[in-house]
Amino acid sequence: MEHKGKVWRYGDNIDTDVIIPARYLNTFDPKELAAHCMVDIDESFAKNVKAGDIMVGGKNFGCGSSREHAPVAMKASGVPVVIAASFARIFYRNGINIGLPLLEIGDAVEKIHAGDELKVDTGTGTIENITTGDTFNARPLPGFVQEIAKAGGLINYIKNK
Amino acid sequence: MGMNMGEKILAKHAGLQFVEPGQLIMADLDMVLANDVTGPPSIKEFEKIGKPVFDNEKIALIPDHFQPAKDIKSADLAKTMRDFAKKHNIVNYFEAGRVGIEHVILPEKGIVAPGMLTIGADSHTCTYGAVNGFSTGVGTTDLAVAMATGQAWFKVPETINVHLTGKKPADVCGKDVILTLIGMIGVDGALYKSLEFTGDGVADLTMTDRLTISNMAIEAGGKNGIFPFDDITKEYVKGRVTKPYEPVFADADAKYAQTVEINLAELRPVVAFPHLPENTKKVADIKEPIKIDQVVIGSCTNGRLEDLEIAAEILAGKSVHPDVRCIVIPGSQYIYKEAVKRGYIDTFIDAGCVVSTPTCGPCLGGYMGILSAGERCVSTTNRNFRGRMGHVDSEVYLAGPFVAAASAILGRIAEKSEVK
Ligand code: SF4
């Protein structure tokens, strides 16, 4: 699947408490979670994010608790794909499982800046930075993970199978 | 190219000849685990799928965290799980009075075996690496789907080789090994990686030591912490595991991302200071005495018979310090009963300890020993995050049973040798 969007750029070790603070965990309503996504480090995100915008982080993105609320909040914000140097393990699983594709590109992430425009193909793992002209390759999502992404998550994928 | 132990288990369960780090695979699961905290939300997700359970013998539902129910909400959680277990005829469901802590009873009852692939909606599911299995913690959706399909997807992790040599001193146990390792590599030292324990030092570690060590792989960020299959494993699983099992062995040319060397002979009893398991210090290096209010001996890390034996030997004929509450929690009904038979429970009660039925209890701040503001606890559990056992201003010091029992008597963090 191809996505084109503007970059919201964050640093290393963005933890799940930052993505969705614990005080908002009394709901599992995606819209409500999205309204508070990233508030503690970037109030403008929830207000200004547009459907299709791409989130880019550094190392160990999504570390901390196993709350699935974190990727749910990001997905409900309209973010179709997240790119990072690396992801924390349980966040990675949960992201894929709820239908939010995650691409790891290591240090190449340094060449993506806030506001850049990216073209991302989650099928091939190709990332084109339209603003700078750089291209990167992430390991493409394998067949079944792509299908999970297309189905909108693991539960739908299993139901349709 | 060779594979290590974890890679072999993953390859086999994915129906592949070979896997390498970074590869994403879909694998068949041998066991799927949930407890009374994570089970109910997974059950809710499971019901959305609209399929029966994939295999009523390969799901384990263990009400251990807040059971026997500590309050109404916990009673509701237990009921959701109980009803589900009945409806789907789940074989490995254990009611209060027959249950124990999940990561104690699954190996004890032979529900997990060498070569098996297990996931659990509990981060300490990594414990079963001790019996040469691959097991790891997951989230709600993973568990729900696994209950319906018997499958989960994995990213094959890189592996750290923890090479053990030598023989440990008499007052050093598995807990000192793992706390020392976490102190060396940090709480994210094994992030997204697996740990494999190798070397001739492995033979010096009892199954209790190994279960403690694998249990805390997650405290270094690890996905799994696996031990080789040897005579000790064989002896342990004999009579417990009734089905055929296939142990795994690392190839001679297996690949590891990194090697960490630990000479067991050089280890000393350690304690992890608040509020991270990596803040390890040798007890002997503590300058100012650290007075304590509570000691907890139990949990999926150190609630096994050998742990109680160590504590009972130190507490025999002694008294718990007047300013200290010492709470002893056997990890399973079997351990509880055996401890009664061997006189350990008498010893604990005579020394002035609280003895509880098997439960997670205070480990995650549930009940049975919650700390007040400013209180300090020496605990044989596995996490000392801020507020883990109660008030945010309380402190948890992680240690093994030698240090916990000695500290209970002296009212401060102490080694066994200090008890006169
Ligand atoms: S004893 Fe503690 S760490 Fe172990 S399963 Fe229970 S709550 Fe979790």
In short, what is this structure?
The complex is a heterodimer of chains A (161) and B (420). With 161 residues, chain A is an alpha/beta fold.
Question: What is the secondary structure topology, with strand pairs?
Answer:
The complex is a heterodimer of chains A (161) and B (420).
Chain A: E1 2-9, H1 16-19, H2 30-34, H3 43-48, E2 54-57, H4 69-76, E3 82-84, H5 89-97, E4 102-104, E5 117-121, E6 126-129, E7 135-137, H6 143-151, H7 154-160
Parallel strand pairs in A: 1-2, 2-3, 3-4
Antiparallel strand pairs in A: 1-5, 5-6, 6-7
Helix pairs in contact in A: 6-7
Chain B: H1 5-13, E1 24-28, E2 31-35, H2 39-49, E3 59-62, H3 72-87, E4 92-93, H4 102-108, E5 117-120, E6 134-137, H5 140-149, E7 151-155, E8 158-165, H6 174-185, E9 193-198, H7 207-215, E10 224-226, H8 231-237, E11 258-263, E12 270-272, E13 280-282, E14 294-297, H9 299-302, H10 305-315, E15 325-328, H11 333-341, H12 344-351, E16 354-355, E17 376-379, E18 395-398, H13 401-410
Parallel strand pairs in B: 2-3, 2-5, 3-4, 5-6, 8-9, 8-11, 9-10, 14-15, 14-17, 15-16, 17-18
Antiparallel strand pairs in B: 1-7, 12-13
Helix pairs in contact in B: 2-5, 6-7, 10-12, 10-13
The complex binds iron/sulfur cluster (SF4).
